[in-house]
Amino acid sequence: MRHNKRALSPIIATILLIVITIAAALIIWSMLGSFSRTGTSSGVSIVTASAVLQPDGKTLVLKVAVRNTGTTLLTGYIKVSFPNGTAVYFDSTGAALTTTPPSVSLPAGQTIENTAPAIVSSAPTSVTFTAYYTDPSGKAVQDIKAVNVAQG
Description:
Elements: H1 10-37, E1 44-53, E2 59-68, E3 74-81, E4 87-90, E5 97-98, E6 104-106, E7 111-119, E8 126-134, E9 140-151
Parallel strand pairs: 1-9
Antiparallel strand pairs: 1-2, 2-7, 3-4, 3-6, 3-8, 4-5, 8-9
């Protein structure tokens, strides 16, 4: 007795395997892509910084602009360090200096600009600006920029 069994031709079977493989690869790729897009990034950058000694020889005008280059809210401060080891911080308004670090929010993609005068007993030749921030998960990000003091 003879049985009639039909099978797929080898060409159609090969095409089906290729189509199934491509479909599976596209599904996996789209799932992995959505995982990478949901993550957040943190970053901070000192865009500009300057220190200008005024003609009186005692007033140092400090200016700095800091940008949040990430995709999440940052909280932190901007510190100015002098060669003699002292440090001051821009206050929460950005217009004055304080000896304790404040907690200032910096939204994603935003830039803050601070300008404040510092009274110095002797004119420094350089100062160092440090932008130190943390994201909501506690990851710390910072940028440091040293500048020479210009005569105003």
